[in-house]
Design the sequence.
C-alpha cells in the first residue's frame, strides 16, 4: 500500500531551515504524533489573529530566503494545489505568495479550456506554463482536473479518465527526471466545514463571487468526489511525486503548516547579499517639480 505523507504541524522556530536535520519526505508520519493520523482531526484551538500574523510573517521571511536561493541556483519547482471546492486553496496560495516576487513565484490558474485547447493533447496547455530556471510555478488546480471535476461531472469519458490515471505517473516521472521538483498538495476539508463555507459565500456579498457553477453540484456529489480522490491517490501517489495531504478545516493553521512543509521539502540556504547604500539625490538641473503639477487632475484624498 502506498504511503501518503501528511503535512507536519507548524514549527514555530523559523530559524529551522530545510538544510541540516531535515526530515525525509515520508518521515512526517513517524516524526509527528499529533496530526498525521488520517482518522483523527485536530482539536487544537484556533489561532488568534495576532499570533497567526506573527508566525506567518516569520515563515514568509523564510520564503524570501528560499526565493533568493531558487534564483541563485536556477532551480525549477512546481507546486500543485488540489482539493475539493472551498478547501482553502486560494487563501493558502495567497499566504504563500504575498511577500515574494511574482516573477519567481508564478501562480497559474487556468480557466475552462477553449475549443482549440480541447483539441490539443490534454497536458499541452499546462506544460507551456512549466518553470524556467529560477522559478517556482504554483498551479491553482492543474492537470488533476481530469481525475476530479471532469470525471465526476462527466466532462471526460470513462476511457479518458482511466487513461489519465495510467499515464499521469509516467508523465510526472518524466518531469522529475528532467530536473523539476514536483510538490503535490491535497487540501482535505470536512463535509461540515465545506457546508459552512458555502453557506457563508451565499450570504456574504463580498464572497458570492467565489461561488462557481460547479460549487453547488459538488455538495450533492460529495461521495462521488471522495471516490474520485481515492482513485487518484491510489494511481498517482508515487515515490517520485508523492501527495502531501493538508487538513484545512482551520484555515490559519493549514496555511502555516503548508508553508512550513514546503520549506522543509525544498533544500535552501541563505544567499549572501551585498550591502546596499542609498545614493544622495543629485541637485544638478534641480527645479520645483511640484509646481509643474499645478492644475493637473488629482485623486480626491477622502481617507
Sequence:
Amino acid at each position: 500500500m502506498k504511503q501518503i505523507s501528511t503535512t507536519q504541524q507548524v514549527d514555530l522556530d523559523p530559524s529551522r531551515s530545510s538544510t541540516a536535520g531535515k526530515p525525509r519526505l515520508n518521515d512526517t508520519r513517524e516524526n509527528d504524533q499529533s496530526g498525521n493520523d488520517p482518522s483523527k482531526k485536530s482539536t487544537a484551538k484556533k489561532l488568534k489573529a495576532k499570533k497567526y500574523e506573527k508566525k506567518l510573517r516569520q515563515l514568509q521571511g523564510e520564503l524570501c530566503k528560499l526565493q533568493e536561493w531558487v534564483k541563485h541556483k536556477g532551480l525549477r519547482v512546481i507546486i500543485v494545489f488540489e482539493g475539493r471546492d472551498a478547501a482553502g486553496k486560494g487563501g493558502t496560495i495567497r499566504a504563500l505568495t504575498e511577500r515574494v516576487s511574482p516573477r519567481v513565484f508564478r501562480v497559474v490558474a487556468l480557466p475552462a479550456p477553449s475549443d482549440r485547447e480541447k483539441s490539443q493533447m490534454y497536458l499541452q496547455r499546462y506544460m507551456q506554463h512549466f518553470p524556467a530556471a529560477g522559478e517556482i510555478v504554483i498551479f491553482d488546480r492543474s492537470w488533476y482536473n481530469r481525475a476530479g471535476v471532469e470525471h465526476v461531472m462527466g466532462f471526460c469519458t470513462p476511457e479518458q479518465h482511466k487513461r489519465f490515471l495510467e499515464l499521469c505517473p509516467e508523465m510526472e516521472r518524466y518531469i522529475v527526471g528532467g530536473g523539476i521538483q514536483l510538490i503535490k498538495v491535497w487540501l482535505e476539508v470536512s463535509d461540515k466545514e465545506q457546508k459552512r463555507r458555502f453557506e457563508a459565500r451565499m450570504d456574504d456579498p463580498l464572497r458570492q463571487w467565489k461561488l462557481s457553477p460547479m460549487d453547488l453540484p459538488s455538495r450533492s456529489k460529495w461521495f462521488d468526489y471522495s471516490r474520485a480522490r481515492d482513485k487518484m491517490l491510489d494511481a498517482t501517489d508515487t515515490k517520485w511525486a508523492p501527495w502531501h495531504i493538508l487538513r484545512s478545516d482551520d484555515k490559519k493553521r493549514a496555511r502555516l503548516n503548508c508553508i512550513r512543509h514546503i520549506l522543509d521539502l525544498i533544500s535552501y540556504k541563505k544567499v549572501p547579499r551585498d550591502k546596499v547604500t542609498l545614493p544622495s539625490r543629485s541637485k544638478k538641473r534641480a527645479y520645483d517639480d511640484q509646481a509643474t503639477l499645478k492644475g493637473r487632475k488629482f485623486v480626491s484624498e477622502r481617507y
